[in-house]
Amino acid sequence: MTAAAPLQEELRELYRDLILDHARSPRHFGKLDDASNRAEGINPLCGDKLKVYLKIKDDGVISDASFEGSGCAISVASASLLTETVIGLTTDSALSYVDAVLAALAGQQKDPADVQLGKLAALQGVREFPSRVKCATLAWRALNAAIHDDKQPATTE
Amino acid sequence: MTAAAPLQEELRELYRDLILDHARSPRHFGKLDDASNRAEGINPLCGDKLKVYLKIKDDGVISDASFEGSGCAISVASASLLTETVIGLTTDSALSYVDAVLAALAGQQKDPADVQLGKLAALQGVREFPSRVKCATLAWRALNAAIHDDKQPATTE
Amino acid sequence: MNEHSQKLAKPVTSGLRDCRSDFPALDQEVNGHSLVYLDSAASSQPPSAVISAVAEYQAHDHANVHRGVHTLSHRATEAYEGARDRAQSFINANTRNEIIFTRGTTEAVNLVAQSFSRPTLKPGDRILITHMEHHSNIVPWQQVCEQTGAELVVAPIDGKGQLKTDELIAQLDERVRMLAIAHVSNALGSINPLREIISNARRFDIPVLVDGAQAVPHMPVDVQELDCDFYALSGHKMFGPTGIGILYGKEAKLDAMPPWQGGGDMILEVSFAGTTYNELPYKFEAGTPNISGAIGLGAAIGYLESIGMALIERHESEILAYMMAELDKIDGIRLIGTADKKASVQSFLLDDIHPHDLGTILDHKGVAIRTGHHCAMPVMEHFSIPGTARASLALYNNRDDVDRLTEALLVAKKIFKK
Amino acid sequence: MNEHSQKLAKPVTSGLRDCRSDFPALDQEVNGHSLVYLDSAASSQPPSAVISAVAEYQAHDHANVHRGVHTLSHRATEAYEGARDRAQSFINANTRNEIIFTRGTTEAVNLVAQSFSRPTLKPGDRILITHMEHHSNIVPWQQVCEQTGAELVVAPIDGKGQLKTDELIAQLDERVRMLAIAHVSNALGSINPLREIISNARRFDIPVLVDGAQAVPHMPVDVQELDCDFYALSGHKMFGPTGIGILYGKEAKLDAMPPWQGGGDMILEVSFAGTTYNELPYKFEAGTPNISGAIGLGAAIGYLESIGMALIERHESEILAYMMAELDKIDGIRLIGTADKKASVQSFLLDDIHPHDLGTILDHKGVAIRTGHHCAMPVMEHFSIPGTARASLALYNNRDDVDRLTEALLVAKKIFKK
Ligand SMILES: Cc1ncc(COP(=O)(O)O)c(C=O)c1O
Ligand SMILES: Cc1ncc(COP(=O)(O)O)c(C=O)c1O
Fold first, then answer.
1. Which of A149, B117, C406, D228 has the least CB density, counted as fewest CB within 10 Å?
2. Which pLDDT score, from 0 to 100, does residue C36 have?
C-alpha cells in the first residue's frame, strides 16, 4: 500500500471536498415548474441520465436553473456546480462556459482570458480518470441542448 | 520438382488407370426407367449430387443398377464401380459391400474374409487425400439409402 | 477439499491456485497494483491455451471452411468442426447437429425468437420469462411479442433475488408457448431450479430455452439431463474469444425450424426459382463463420475439461462463500442477491456511494469490478436501485482477491466519509 | 510502374514483393512444396500485425466493452471504438455512427433485408439484383420477398461475365425498392460500374446496397463518392480475423430503421412496459460484440493503409493480367469471366477435368485454389457448368505464384491425358 500512496492523491484530486460537498448536497436539485427550456442528457454507455431545466428571460438571461436525475458523485456535482454557474448569465456566456468546461475536461488549453472556470476547475481531477470524463460532461451537454431547445436527448457520445 | 517426385506417386495412386477409365467412361450411367428403388446422395460441403437407381427383384436380388449426376473423377468412378459390383448381388450382400467400402476408405481393417473388395480396392488411393474421401463414399451412401428406400437424400456428413 | 475447508484460513484448498499463471492478463499491474479481476461475469480472461490456439490457427491453418479441397481449407474445416464436436460432448448434446455456432448468447436467443417463435405465435399466446433475466433474454421476446401480438409474462422474484418458483409453476398453462429462463442470474448469482421447472413445463408441452451464459463457466451442464429444448451460451464468458457462442437445440426442434439468416453455407442449391436449404447444423450458419472464434472456444472447453467442472464448481462456491462473509462484515454494506443457491456473483451497495464511484476507487486499487445495471434493469427496478457494484468470480480467483476487494472498499468508505 | 511493366519479365515492379514475409501462413510447405496461396477470394491470410493485435489484446486488455469503469474495460472500449474510427476513415464514411460491426457481409445483407426492407415491402414492389451475385446477396432477398410478397428481379450478364449495364438501367423504375449489387464478383472478378448505376438508381430514389466483400481488399473504396446507401464487407477477406465485418449505412437511413436483433448494448432502457433503443451505431449491435475481431480488423486496415490501396490495386492488376495471359497459353483451358474491368479473380476449366480433381492435384503441388460453385450457382448455371477452378490474388501474390499455378496445371493435364 505504501508504494501506491502517491497514487491515492489522484483519488483525492478527483473526489475533492468541493465535489463531495456538491454530490452530497446538490444545489438547485429538482424540477423547475416554470422552466422555459429543458433537455435530457444521457450517457448511453453507462445509462446515466439527467434533466436540466432553465428559465430564460426575453433578454436572454438565465434567471433560474435546476436539474434532476441520479448519478455518480461526479455527474451530480458537475450538474450542481453548473446550476450555480449559469444562473444570472446570458445564454451566450453560458454557452462559452460549456465550451470551456468541455475543453478543460478534454485536456485542451483554451484562452484563459475567455472564461474563468473558478470553482468549476474542481472538475479537472477527472482528467486522470478517462472512463469518468463523460460523467463530468453530461450536464453540460444537456445544458447546451436545453439552450438550443433540442428535442433529442443530448448524449456523451 | 525432383524432391517432390515420390509424392507424385500418391497422385498416381489416387488417379489409377482403372479410376480414370471409369471416370471417363462411366458404366451404367443414366436413369433406370423401371427402377424399384432410388436415392439421392448429396455432399453438402462441396455440393456434389448423384442419384442411384436399383431394380430389386422379389427375391432380393439387384437385377440392374445405374447412376446419374455430375461429379469429380473420384465420385463418378466410385459410382461406376459400384454399379458393376452390385448387379447380381442380393441387397444384403450389397450392404456388406457398403460397410466394407466405407470401412476401407476410413482406413479401418475389416475382416478380409467378409467381402472381397476386388476392383474396389482401387478406391483406396483416396485415403491419402482426406478432403476427397467423401467423394468416394457418396455413391455408397446413396446405395445404402436406395436399398432402405429412404426419402431423404443421403449425405456424406 | 472437505467440509471444513471453509473454516480454515486463507490457503485455497481446491488445488486450483496454480492455474492463475495460465492467464496472462492476470499477471499485470493496474494503477500500480497487481490486477484483481472480479469482472468475469461481464467477460472472462482467456488462458494462454486459447490465445495461442487462435494465433496458431491464424498463422498456419487459416482458410475458408467447407467446400475447399486444398490442405489449409481441409485443416481449417477439421479444426472448426472439431470444435463443434468438443462443444457437443462438453454440454452432452445428443448429436453434433444440435450445436449451432452463433456470435453469442444474444444471437442465440434472437435466432430462437425469430425462427422458432415468430412463425407460430398468435395473439393470446404467451411467452414466460422471469424478473431476473438479462436484457438479451428479454428484448428479443418483447420484439417477437410486438411482431405477433403475443403477450410477455414475467415470473416474480423475492427479496433475496430468488425466483418464486411456485408462482412460475402456477403461471404455466396452455397459453404459454415459450419459457425463457436464465440458468444463473448475471446480476444476482441466483441458480434457478431448472429440473423442477422444466418437468412442470413438459406437462403443457411448453418449449424451454435456457440462457446458460452465466452457468457454463462455473458448473457442469448436461443439456440432456436438463431436458431443455434450447440452451444458449457465450464463448467470452467461458474463457474463449469474443464473437462466438452456441445455440444448442434439440434436433427435432431445429429440424422443423426455417432458417433465419440467408447466405453462403446455409444452402444446398440456389437458383432464382428457389433455394434448397442445407441440413443441420449448417442451415443456421449463414456466411463464413467465426472460424478462429470457434477454434478458440474449443480450446477453452479443452482447458476447462482438463481441470474438471466439478472441481471448478467446488472451488468457486468456497470463494463465493468467503466473499459474501467478508463483504457482510463491512459496515454499511448492502448485499443484493442472497439466494440460497448461488454461483460466482455478488452485487452490493456501500453506504450511499454511487456504484460508479466505488468502481473508480476500486480500479485505482487494481480491483476490477463492474458497476451499473448489468443489463438487468428489471432487477434494479425490483430492488428500487439504479445499479449495483458487482464482484464476480471465476476459476482463477482466490481468497486474496477477496481480501483486496474488501480493503479497497474500506478506502472508498474513507474517501466518502462525511 | 509504368504502362510497359506488363511486358517486362518476372520481377515485380510495384515494390510489394517484400510484404510476403508479413504473412506467416505463406511461409510453410504444403505437400512438400512451398505454399502458393491463390484462394484469397474465399478468405485471405492475416499478417502478423493482425495476429499479434488480437493476441496482445487477449493477453493484456480484454474485458467487456462499454459500461465498464475499470481500466481493462476502458482499454477494451477504446480499442474497439478505435477500430470503428479506423473503418470510418478507411471507407470514408461521413460519421462513425455509420459503421456497424457485423459478423461479415452475409450478416450485413441480412440486417438490411430484415430491418430496412421487410417492414416496408409490399406485393408489387421489386428487389433488383444481378445474375453474378454471391448467395449471400441473393438468399436474404429471396427470404424477404417470400415474407412480403415482393418480387426478385435479376439483371443479366453477358458471355464474358459482365453485367449488361444498359439492361439493368432499363430495369430501374418506381417499383424497385432496393438494388443490391456486388462491387466485384467473387466468381468472375468483374468490376461493376457502380457510379453510373447508382446515379441512375437515384432518379427513382432506389436505395442501393453494395456487396463490397471482394472490392475492399483490392482497391480504394470511398462510400461517399459511390453514393451508395449501404456497403457490406467482411474482415476475413481483407486480412482481418473471421467473425467480423461491417455494414456501412447512410446515417439517415440507419436512423430510420428499427433495430434488428435485441439484447444487451442495443438498448438505453428496458422495462417490461417497453424498451428504449440506443442510438447509432449501438442500436444495431446487440449483445457483446466480437471485440477482438474488430480490433484485428482495425489492425488489418492499418496494415493496408501503411501500404496504400492504390499501390495494391496497381500491383494486383499487373499480376492478374499476367495470370490471365499465362493461363490462356495452356492448351485446353477455358477462362470463365473475362470482363474488361476485373479484379483479383480468374475462374477456369481445363479440358474435361473436374475442378475438384484439378484442386487436388494443384494442392499436391502446394498450390491452393478453390473449386466448385463459389456460392454463385446462378453464375455456374449461366455458363452451363457445375463449377470452376478459381485462382484469386491478393497483395502478397506475385508472378512466381502464377508460374507455379500453370506448372501444376500441366501436371494435371499429364495425369488426365487420354
Ligand atoms: C461477393 C461476396 N459477397 C458475399 C460474401 C459473403 O461473405 P461472408 O461469408 O464473409 O459473409 C462473399 C464471400 O464469401 C463474397 O465473395
Ligand atoms: C445471463 C446472461 N444472458 C445473456 C448475456 C448476453 O451474452 P452476450 O452479450 O455474450 O450475447 C449475458 C452477458 O452479457 C448474461 O450474463
1. A149
2. 98
Whether the pLDDT of residue D177 is over 60: the answer is yes
Q: In b/e form, how buried is each residue of D55-65, taking b as 16+ CB within 10 angstroms? A: bbbbbebbbbb
* Chain A, chain C: beta-carbon pairs less than 8 Å apart: 51
Amino acid at C363: D
C-alpha cell at D216: 475492399
End-to-end CA distance of chain A: 36
Please tell me which of the candidates D259, D291, D368 has its beta carbon nearest to residue C72.
D368
Active site residue D375: yes
Question: Residues of chain C whose C-beta is under 8 A from some C-beta in A?
Answer: 31-33, 353-357, 360-361, 363-365, 372-373, 386-387, 411, 415-416, 418
Q: What is the CA radius of gyration of chain D?
A: 22
Residues D337 and D381 in one domain: yes
D186 near D376, Cβ under 8 Å?
Answer: yes
Q: What single-letter amino acid sits at A58?
A: D
Task: Note whether D100 and D195 are same-domain residues.
Answer: yes
The reply to whether residue D411 touches residue B8, judged by beta carbons under 8 angstroms, is yes
d(CA D333, CA D327): 7
Q: Which alpha helices (DSSP H) does D104-256 contain, by range?
A: 105-111, 139-148, 165-171, 194-202, 223-226, 251-256
- Final residue in a domain of this structure, among D255, D280, D306: D306
> What is the C-alpha separation between C390 and C334, in angstroms, rounded?
12
Q: What is the DSSP string of D163-189?
A: B-HHHHHHH-STTEEEEEEESB-TTT-
Q: Which domain holds residue D402?
A: 3-30+308-417
Angle at D324 between CA D319 and CA D328, to 5 degrees: 145
Total domains present in chain D: 2
Looking at the complex, report in whole angstroms how far the Cα of residue C300 sits from the nearest Cα belonging to chain B.
Answer: 25
Domains with residue ranges and CATH for chain A = 4-155 (3.90.1010.10)
Instruction: Tell me if there are at least 3 CB pairs under 8 Å linking chains B and A.
Output: no
Nearest to D372 among B7, B12, B46 (CB): B46
Instruction: For a ligand 1 pocket test, name from C66, C67, C288, C290 the mutation site with the most ligand atoms within 8 angstroms of its C-beta.
Output: C288
8 A C-beta contact, residue D232 and residue D108 = yes
Residues D261 and D312 in one domain: no
Is C135 found in the same domain as C182? yes
Please compute Rg for chain B using Cα positions.
15
**Rounded to a whole number, what is the distance in Å from the CA of B47 to chain C's nearest CA?**
6
Q: Which chains touch D (3 or more CB pairs under 8 A)?
A: A, B, C
The closest ligand to the CA of C102 turns out to be 2
Q: Which residues of A53-82 are buried (b: 16+ CB within 10 A; e: fewer)?
A: bbbbeeeeebebbbbbbebbbbbbbbbbbb
Strand pairing category for C176-182 and C208-211:
parallel
A88 contact partners, CB below 8 Å, separation of at least 6? A61, A62, A63
Query: C186: Cβ below 6 Å to ligand 2?
Result: yes
Cell numbers that stand for A150 in this block = 433540442
Residue contact A7–C32, C-beta within 8 A: yes
Closest Cβ opposite residue C33 in set A4, A10, A132: A4
Please give, rounded to a whole number of angstroms, the shortest distance from the CA of D367 to a CA of chain C.
8
Q: Which three cell numbers stand for residue D342?
A: 476485373
DSSP letters, D262-276, are -STTSEEEEETTEEE
pLDDT digit string, tens, across residues D319-361: 999 999 999 999 999 999 999 999 999 999 999 999 999 999 9
Low-confidence spans in chain C with pLDDT less than 50: 1-12
**Residue A21 and residue C418: Cα distance in Å, rounded?**
9
The tens digit of pLDDT for each residue in B8-56 reads: 788 999 999 999 999 999 999 999 999 999 999 988 666 778 999 999 9
Rounded Cα gap, residues D310 and D288, in angstroms: 35
